[in-house]
Amino acid sequence: MEICKLEHIRKDYRMGEVVTPLKDVSLVVNKGDFIAVEGPSGIGKSTLLYVMGTLLQSDEGSYTFEGRDVAKFGDDEKSELRAKKVGFLFQDSTMIQALTLRENLLFTQGVGGKKDPKMVDELLYRFGLEDRADFFPHQLSGGQRRRAMAARALIHDPVLILADEPTNDLDEHWSEEIIRVLKEQTEKGTAVVMVTHNSRWAQEATRRCRLEDGVLVDIAE
Length: 221
Ligand SMILES: Nc1ncnc2c1ncn2[C@@H]1O[C@H](COP(=O)(O)OP(=O)(O)OP(=O)(O)O)[C@@H](O)[C@H]1O
Ligand SMILES: [Mg+2]
Hints:
Blueprint: E1 2-15, E2 17-30, E3 34-38, H1 45-52, E4 60-65, E5 68-69, H2 75-85, E6 86-89, H3 101-111, H4 117-126, H5 142-154, E7 160-164, H6 172-187, E8 191-195, H7 199-202, E9 207-212, E10 215-218
Parallel strand pairs: 3-8, 3-9, 6-7, 7-8
Antiparallel strand pairs: 1-2, 1-4, 4-5, 9-10
The structure holds adenosine-5'-triphosphate (ATP) and magnesium ion.
Magnesium ion binds at residues 45-46, 164.
C-alpha cells in the first residue's frame, strides 16, 4: 500500500544565487519500506526530507500523501498531517525546555491525537531512558537527547518516519538499537526514510538510494 509519492520534484532555494538541490526526484514509499538515502554533504538529502514532511513546498512536480495532493492542503491540513502521520527524527530536533522528557513525549502524542502513557513508558524503556523520564532536556546528555528524539518520532504511531542521520552522536550500541527499532517499526507497517552517511546502517534498509545532482537513483545491490 502506498503511503506517499514524489513525482518529478524540483526545489530551488533563492538566496542570491539559486541553488537547486532537488531537480527531478521521483520516489514511491510503500507501507513497511525502509529506504536509505545516501549522498555527499550539501547535496539535498535534508531538503528531500523537508519536502516529504511538508515543511517545504516543492517548486515543481507533485507530492501525494495517502493519495492526496499535498499542494492543495491548507496550513491546518499540513499541520494535522505532520502531527498525526509523520514522525520526525531530524539533526536539529529539540524538545520543549520547560517540560520533562515524559511530558515532552506526552505532549507530542497528544498533538497527534493520542493519549497512551503506557506507550510513553515503554518507549522510554526501549531507549534506556526510563530513569530519565522526569529530567528536563538540559539535564540529558547529547546521546540521551538523541534517543529521546527517536522515542518522540514513534510516540504517536506515525505511518511515515523521516530520520535524518538518526545515529549521529550515538555510540555503537545505541546506533544499533535505533536502527533495530526503526527496522521493527517497518515490520509493523510503518515506512522509514532514513538519511545516512554510514553504509553499515544503509545496508539494513530494504532499498538504498543516492541523491546525485538533484536526482534520486537506486544503488544496485
Ligand atoms: N533555507 C535555505 N536557503 C538557501 N539554501 C539552502 C537552505 N537550506 C539548504 N540550502 C542549501 O541547499 C543545499 C542542500 O542542503 P541540504 O541541507 O538539503 O543538504 P544535505 O544533503 O542534507 O547535507 P548534509 O549531509 O551536510 O546534511 C546546500 O547547498 C545548502 O546550502
Ligand atoms: Mg542534511
